[in-house]
Every structure is written in C-alpha cells, then in structure tokens.
Amino acid sequence: MNICDSIGLPLHHRKFYYKWLGDGYGQFGEEWDPSQPTRLGIYFNYPWNRGRKTIFRNGTSFPIPQDDKWHEMVKVDKLRGEANNPTHVVALATNNITKRIVMSEWLRDRFRNEGSNCTTSIKDITDKATGKIVAPKSLRQALNRPDSILWKEAIRKELNALDELGVLSHHHKMKDIRAQGIATSAVPMQLLYDVKYHPDRSLDKYKVREVVQGHKGYMRRGEHFFNTFSASPSCRTTRLLQAITIGTGLHRHAWDICTAYLWADVKDRERIPIRYPKDLRKYDDETGEELYAILKKNCYGMPQADRRYTQLRNKFIDEEFNKGGWKCSKSRQDPCLFIFTSPSGSKSYVIIHTDDCDGHGEKLDDLKYIAKCFDTRFKIKICNPQFMLGVQRDITTVDKVTYMNLTQPDFITTTYNTFKEHCPTKDIHTPFPPGMVLHGLLEEHNEETSKALISRGYQSVAGSILWAARNCYPEVSVAANMICRLMSKPTELAWKCAMHTLKYLYGQSHRGIQFRSDGNKTPICYYDASNKADPSDGKSQFGYVIFMFNGPIVWASKKHKHVGLSSTHDEYMALSQASRDIEWIRQILIEIGYPMPSKTPTPTLGDNDNATLYAREDLITPGNKFIIQEYHYAKECVERGITCPRRVDTTHNISDILTKSVARPIITRLRPMLTGHGGILPPVPLPPED
Questions:
Q1: Which of 97, 272, 338, 418 is most exposed, with the fewest beta carbons within 10 Å of its own?
Q2: 177 closest CA partner among 80, 14, 291
Q3: What is the pLDDT averaged over residues 57-65?
C-alpha cells in the first residue's frame, strides 16, 4: 500500500493497479523472462488477501501506470461504477424516455386504478450480491417501485406490439370461441420482467414479455401444437466468423429483430383460447363472465414459436435475396448462417441467433442494405457489434496487427458475486484442483446432501461454468465436464471444486480468447487423451482444439464413449473425434468461399507415435485389432486428404490441458497458447517421411 501511496493512486484504483501489473508480474511470474534480468518488479502475493504478505527488498522498483491499457481500465472502471449504481441507472434511463407510447384501453384503466405511491427505495430493488437492479415479480410490484415509470414504458411497448401485429383477438366469451370451432383448452398468459445488461455491466434496457404459459401443464402435443424443431446456431460458427473478420478485414454490422416471434402466423389448428395475465383479466360488464382472447399469430412461450418464426424468416431471406442480382444460400454446416453475394460479387455472412443478427461482410454498405431489407419486412434495432449474446468482442490494432478479444466479464462477475460467500478467499491459478478426477465414487452419495447443494445453486453454477467454457474460456473445459457429471447428485467435494473453478474464472474474466490478423490462415489441430480413467467406468478423458488466426475456433473436452485398453487406443479414439470437427470446419470454409487449398490436409498434432502410425498405415496388431469400426474414421480422413497426423512433443501439446486437471506450471505454460494470448503459434512440425 505504501507503493500505491507514493505513486498517488486513489484507493479505488489500487486493485486495478495490481491487475494492470498482472497476477504473474515479476520474477517467476507468467510474464517473467530470464533473458531480461533488468525487468522491474518482483512476484508478490495478492495484497488484499488474508495471511502471508510479501516483504520487498530495498531498491525494488514498480512502474507508474500511464499506458493506453491503464487509461482504458480506469475508463471502464468509471463506466462500471455508473452502471453498478442503481440510482444513476434509473435516473439516466428515466431521462432517456422521450416519447409516450399510446396504451391499450384495457391497460390504461389498470394503470389508473393501481396505486402509484412508491413503497420501496432503490436499495430495496438492488441485489446485494451483484449490485444489479432486481426485476419485479408482478404488475403490482412494478407499479410500486422508484423505477415504475420505466416498467410502465416497457409494458406499454410490449402490449402495443402485440396489438399492432394482431397477435390476439380480444374479449371473447368462451361459448363464442367454441362456436368458431376452437375446442382446445384455454392457455394462460403472464408478464415476465427483466433488466438487461451489456457484457461490460452497463444497463441495456428494461424489458417485459407477455408470454403464453406453454409448459406441459397447459399445452399438450397433438392438441395445442405438433412439431417444435428449429435449428439453433453454434458458438463455433460465431467464433469462426470473428476470426475471419479479423484475418481478412471484414466489416461488422449487427441488428435485432424486434418482437421476432410475433411476426409469424399460426396454423388454423393452432388457434387457441388465451386467458389474460392474472393482473390484467377482463370480465363481461353485464354477466360478469370472464373474457378470453384468441391466439391468431405466433407468441413467446409457445413450444412451436421458434419453428413458426424461423420458417417465416428463412422464407423471407430466400425470396428477398435471390433476385435483383443478389444471391443467398443457407449453410448446410450451420443452418443459422446465411451467405449473401451482392450484384457486384462481394460476400456477406449473417449468423442469426433467433432475433439477433450478427453480420460480417466485405462491404459495409452491403450489410446495411441487408439490414434495411430486414427493417422493411420486420422492425429492427441497430445494435453495437461489440456485444453479442453476452460476449464482449473488442477489436484493437497494434503495430499493424489487428486483434479481437472475446470475453464474458459481466456474466462471470455476476455469477461470482452470486456465490462469492462460498468461494475460496485466496487467489486461484488453476481451472480445477490439480490431479482431481471428479466422479461419483469419491464420496458415498447422500440424498439429503445432494438436495441441499442443489438448493444452494449447484446446478446453476455448473451451467454457468459450462457456458463460459463453451464460449471464451476453453481452459475450464475439463472442470466443466467433471462438475456436470454430478449435476443430479452433487457432493460436498463437487461443490468445492465448482467454487474453485468459479473463483478461477473470476480472476481470468478479463482475458478470454484472442484472434490476430497475422495468425495461421488455415486450420491447425492439436489432440490428446489422458490415460487416467474415471474409476467409476474405466473411460478416459480426451480433448482437442482447432486454431485459425492464432485463436481457438473449436475445442472439446469429453469422456470417451468406450473404454481404452492402452494410451494408444485412447489417443486413436481422440484423433477420430478431432477428425470429425476438422471435417466440419473445412466444409464450412469451403461453403462460405474462404480461399483454402482444398487439397492440403489439415495438420493434426498429437504426441502418441503409435496413434499416428495407425492412422497413416494399414497396420493390424494385437494392440489395435479390436478397435471399433467407427474410430477408423481417423484413417479415412487421412486417406481422403482431410487430415495429416504429425508428432508434437508432449510438452508442446496445447490440448494437454483439455484432458486432465494439471498443475499451475503447465497451465501457465499452455494457457496463453490455447487462448491465443501467447504470441504466434509454434511452427507446425513436418509430416513423417514416407
């Protein structure tokens, strides 16, 4: 603290100074270079932790924070401070309301009759753990809060949207509905309230949805609905587009389709009676009989809602962008990715996450034209492409090299704050306790303990860790896989492991993954498998990662479906699994027209020579004659020129940390390369001589 005093740092900037230095600053730290002994600093403990402190030698020097990174951290800190101040958020949002949306007549009376005297304070509506505004549970709560004007505006906006699009036909008696031939049981609606935040923790909007209660208690297959399937986009496709955007200099443009589901019609057989939300029910003035609505169009909450909307949206895209010189096709490898070709021949790519459209293209004008066409057919809102589905995507350029960093700071911070009291107080430097193999035989199962841990939030934190591992933090993939193994029967040890991983993620939330424009322009794959099997079933963990533009596009850490009888067997099965995703990424690159030499196989690097040999040669031995046929897909990919298995030294096999829980030195050595933060990937080894 004396150091911070001498530098003149304010109290609220001192933890940022520690983060600016880095958790491995100085001698023997992550960034320490023995070839530069004059580097300032010394490795030291976290100053705000309980326990042992670091004693500095006389003459130890610390730098004064003054570079662009420091100024950006201070700026972000200021914005986050404002975003985490509910009073500031409410005041700012209230001042931003500049127009009044006309209310439905039946809602105007409800607002007039409800008491508008505020019975709560900002403090009462703020979550103590996360510092965020807590959404109300009912209309009465929404109208008796200091931010009630914002909720009224959100409710007006939602209900007017339903009326403008003709989703409901209002105020029918049940006998009149039956007279129209609608025989299904009535399904209630409800209002859902939410406060949306950006990944940088700044307020996005107050949001209200009027939804159909489409669960099994009210809607039944064959009566209220039939088919429900609709495609969902893949995280890997999104990452691939980010990498290509950085590597080839594409433009970004993003937009949101407003009230997306409401634009689609329902089939005649799907018209059903709707019971109004509890706080908004209407009754006949003469008879007192309850009045219902008839569902005429698609609505949120219906099991088939996404299917109907997706059918409408895809039909529009196909008809609108295959005329006037435009061409558009839907990807076979990811049906939520659309490939546009303008009359001039320039390419654009739009991946659609239900209503969030993430566009990347050679010409920004093309993307704007595509968005304008969407706005003509639907109503859209232009969004900041820096944020998409909770992922923050920051682009910077240093020395003519362009970088993109993908992080989830708000998601991780919010999750951590929710479970903070259960997390370790010390700093955590490994994604999972080193050497730990979490399985059901480690502790005797206790039903009461499992129920208590589920109530405490085990399944919630497990899902959060899994979501982080799938998006921006591949090094926690082993942890996520093991924690999810005990999802239905958690133990105290599993809970402690989950808190370990969550504390690690909180410490790494600013890092994520990175792509760079001077990285590898074609895919490179690393694969590995552990020979330490799960004692409960004898199956081992395997992992692989595929890089482009120096960052991870596809990664996996899973347990084998079959028992491996040797390390070679485990690694050969891992090679087969990796080959499937190599095939996928090559196919989608060809599909979008990416300039990739189709006859050049993808380098596939592993550290087991026999597994490489089995894939390259028709060698049958007592050690491999029993391998199940499906795993020989690895050999087929070699023969077809898809993959080229090569040897990489075990110490340089980046996928090693996707197969087991390793100690801090290995994490420190391999994590920078796995996440794209460790400089250019090492040169690819030459293929074996024929």
A1: 97
A2: 291
A3: 67
Q: Tokens at residue 116, please?
A: 């508008």
Distance, CA of 303 to CA of 311 (rounded, Å):
14
Name the amino acid, one letter, at 371.
A
Alpha-carbon distance of 387 to 340, in angstroms, equals 23
Compute the distance between CA of residue 679 and CA of residue 398 in angstroms, rounded to an integer: 13
Query: What does the alpha-carbon distance between residue 410 and residue 201 come to, in Å, rounded to a whole number?
Result: 5
Looking at residue 444, its pLDDT comes to 81
Strand-pair partners of 274? 187, 293
The Cα 331–Cα 349 span in angstroms is: 10
pLDDT score of 97: 44
Inform me whether the pLDDT recorded for 191 exceeds 50.
yes
d(CA 643, CA 270): 49
* Lookup: tokens for 457: 């939030």
Please report the sign of the dihedral spanned by the C-alpha atoms of residue 4, residue 10, residue 15, residue 18. Answer: negative
Cβ atoms 417, 131 nearer than 8 A: yes
Strands across the sheet with 401-407, in order?
387-388, 391-398, 401-407, 513-516
Quickly count helices (H) and strands (E) in the chain: 20, 20
- Residue 340 near residue 366 (C-beta atoms within 8 A): yes
CB-based contact 548:519 (threshold 8 Å) = yes
The model's pLDDT over 427-478, given as tens digits with 9 standing for 90+, comes to 999 999 999 999 888 788 889 999 999 999 999 999 999 999 999 999 999 9
How far does Cα 518 stand from its chain's mean position? 26
Q: Could you identify the residue written with the tokens 């600093």?
A: 41
**What does the pLDDT read at residue 86?**
54
Work out the average pLDDT over 654-682.
95
Tokens of 64: 């004064």
Amino acid at 588: I
Give DSSP secondary structure letters for 601-653.
PEEEEES-HHHHHHHHS----TTTTT--GGGGHHHHHHHTTSEEEEE--GGG-
Q: Are 331 and 339 in contact (CB under 8 A)?
A: yes
**Cα distance between residue 81 and residue 455, in whole Å:** 31
pLDDT in tens, 391-434: 999 999 999 999 999 999 999 999 999 999 999 999 999 999 99
Q: Are 355 and 228 in contact (CB under 8 A)?
A: no
- CA dist 443 and 535 (Å) reads 12
Per-residue pLDDT at 40 exceeds 50: no
- Contact between 625 and 586 (Cβ < 8 Å): no
Say what the pLDDT of residue 106 is. Answer: 42
What average pLDDT is seen over the chain?
Answer: 87
| Angle in degrees, CA 526, 532, 533, rounded to 5 | 105
Instruction: Give me the CATH topology for the region 519-675.
Output: Nucleotidyltransferase; domain 5 (3.30.420)
Going by C-beta distance under 8 Å and a sequence separation of 6 or more, which residues neighbour residue 379?
A: 257, 258, 259
Cα–chain-centroid distance for residue 341? 29
Sorted by where each begins, the domain ranges of the chain are: 2-66, 86-235+253-323, 409-508, 519-675
How far is CA 151 from each of CA 82, 90, 202, 431, 481, rounded to the nearest angstrom? 20, 11, 18, 40, 40
Which alpha helices (H) appear in 132-193, and where do they start and end?
A: 139-142, 148-164, 174-179
